[in-house]
Each structure stands twice: as structure tokens, then as C-alpha cells.
Amino acid sequence: MVELSGQPQDILKPAGLSRIQExxxxxxxxxxxxxxxxxGFSGATVEKIAADAGMSKSNLLYYFSSKEAIYxxxxxxxxxxxxxxxxxxxxxxxxxxxxxxxxxxxxEISARFPEASRLFANEVIQGAPQILPILQTDLKRLxxxxxxxxxxxxAAGKMRRVDPVHLIFTIWATTQHYADxxxxxxxxxxxxxxxxxxxxxTELAVTSLILNGAGLDWPPVEDRTE
Length: 226
Prior knowledge:
This protein is an all-alpha fold. The chain contains ten helices and no strands. Helix 5 runs parallel beside helix 8.
């Protein structure tokens, strides 16, 4: 789980929950994601989240002490899901394979959790009032670690010299674009990531553009068509 420096303890997943409590907590977070992504933090209400989760307000407050705690837990879960693929970049791996796998996972997450992407984007656009400590500590530390992995590949002559942090930013921007601007993409192409064929096309295009720009051949020769 992502460590959340400086954040209240009740946004973390408590230890020792029963199966029913685990299920109820998941229902709350799922309902909260839908409510916050549509109405933002200010417009969302605990009553509506409780109703969408199929429980009373008092029952919901057993799990989370306030709307802010629910919101922080929702954002923390989003970060946990999004950052898991970045953690997999291995110094001893081949850059093309490692980065292609990372891009693929990021596109899959955008396809499966578009509301989560939009909620996170809206939070950051507003100045990250709830999660700035996370961005400044845990996220910054993780990105720093993975920049060193990319720098090791560059030093070994495995890829072109590029700025590692901007490479990561570019991957984030391109993959999350397909969730955050899905309405625009649908208006222009008539398709989005809910279409498996379009998702596959997106993965190939984004991966090729980014990896070729970093001096890495993609797709692999054996996968190319005439």
C-alpha cells in the first residue's frame, strides 16, 4: 500500500477487518468515487454516498469519520492502483519491455477506471488541497527511485539520453488523456477505450511514439506486419 505521509490514519485500510467489513468499506469507496467524480468534494454528500453504498449514514461513519476522510481514502486508493505499475520497473530489465509493460498497464487502468482518473485530475487542477503532502513525499520519492532506474539504462547505453522525469510525465499525460478526455476522443473518433480494438490501437500508437522517441525499437521486429 502507498504510504501516506502526514495524512490521518483513518484514510488507511485498517487491519483486522472482517470479510463483511471489508466488503462494506469497498462499497463505500466505490460509491464515493462515483459521487466525488460527478460533483467534486464540495458538492458530494455523506448521505448520498451512504445511500449509493446501500447503508445508513451512521453505518458509513463507523468506517470513516467524515466526508474528508472518505475523500482522502478514495484518492489514496486511486494512487495505490496507479502507482503499482510504476513500482515494477526493474533496473536489470530491458528498457523497451519494461516501459512497454508500464504503458500497457497505464492504458488498462485508464480503460477500467476513467472516473478515478478524472477525479484525481480535478483534485490536482484545484491545487491538490487534500493530497499535496502525498505528492511532495511518497510520490516524489517513488518517481525519484524510478528516474534512477531509467538513468541506469541510459548509462548502460540501452536507450537514448532523455530526461527521466519528463519521460514519466509524458507517459502519464498520454495514457491518462484517454480517460480524462474520453468525451472528446469519442466525439472525434466515435470510439474510446471501452472498445478493445481501439484500446489495442491506442497501446500500439502510444508505446511506439514514446519508445521510438527514446531510441528504443518498438514494436519488436517479430511483431511487425508488412
